[in-house]
């Protein structure tokens, strides 16, 4: 039986990915170049859940798979050392870390 003062513990299973965020400064038109900004950040629904639980003081572990590459190492280090969640990852040889693209419209909402 858990102690009344015990910190809650949660195991999160899922994705830890690299999000590429595209934010055009004007509406996108087919066949044209559009100026804007490109950002790269840590993403994945499970990783986001683990990060926020850890920030709330929950003892959190994330179990995920990442590529055996620079992106995978960076994602692992960022979440485990800077965000407070414990990460257990399978490093998949020969497979790159997953990457997602998010495009925002000029209003700031996802397009």
Q: Can you describe this structure?
A:
- There is one protein chain.
- It is built from 2 helices and 6 strands; from the N terminus they run βββαβαββ.
- It is of the alpha/beta class and 111 residues long.
- The protein has a single domain (9-103), classed as UDP-N-acetylmuramoyl-L-alanine:D-glutamate ligase.
- The strands form 2 sheets. A 3-stranded parallel sheet has the order 1-4-5. Strands 3-2-6 form a 3-stranded mixed sheet.
- The radius of gyration is 17 Å and the shape is elongated.
- The termini are far apart.
- 21% of the residues are buried.
Show the helix and strand layout.
Blueprint: E1 9-13, E2 17-24, E3 36-43, H1 45-55, E4 59-67, H2 70-82, E5 86-92, E6 99-103
Parallel strand pairs: 1-4, 2-6, 4-5
Antiparallel strand pairs: 2-3
């Amino acid at each position: 039986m858990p102690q009344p003062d015990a910190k809650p513990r949660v195991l999160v299973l899922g994705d830890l990915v690299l999000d590429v965020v595209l934010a055009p400064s004007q509406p996108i038109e087919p066949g044209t170049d559009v100026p804007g900004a490109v950002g790269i950040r840590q993403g994945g629904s499970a990783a986001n859940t683990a990060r926020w639980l850890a920030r709330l003081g929950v003892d959190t572990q994330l179990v995920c798979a990442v590529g055996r590459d620079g992106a995978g190492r960076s994602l692992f280090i960022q979440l485990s050392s800077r965000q407070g969640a414990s990460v257990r990852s399978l490093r998949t040889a020969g497979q790159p870390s997953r990457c997602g693209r998010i495009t925002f419209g000029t209003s700031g909402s996802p397009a």
